Amino acid sequence: MHFKALLTNMKPTLAKAVTFLFFFCLLFGCNRAKKEKNCGAYKTGSFFQLRREAGEAVPFRIEREDSVQVETAQHTKDIGRYNIVWTDSCSYELRYVDGTYVFTPEQLQAKRAEVRRSRILETTALYCLTETKTGNTEAVKDTLWLRTESQ
Q: What is the 3-state secondary structure (H, E, C) of 68-119?
């Protein structure tokens, strides 16, 4: 039986309720459809991120080219250079190479052994939402903004 025929055989109140429920489900279902992620837009370029360090929001400028990511702490101008390896279209790993941060030999060895694993959860034209996990630490969700000229 077709939807229209079904509605004509129902009482008017019930028909209205079924019609409303049908269109509500259709509308809600369309809005909940999974959006296509454009992770490729975040593989190279200039980005901006606010990170929590010692309870404060610290701005970082991030430059990505090919297999290298350079992070600059805006407040100290310290630089960290990382190798970036894309493990799939929306996930990547970062390994520290070098930078201007001062480390003891032991700290440097630990830093270079550390792997930061990030996954892009959602993308927009202006930013992406990421989830990053380092070693056994709890995953951290953050926003990576496409950098504008003023940042």
A: EEEEEECCCCCEEEEEEEEEECCEEEEEEEEECCCCCHHHHHHHHHCCEEEE
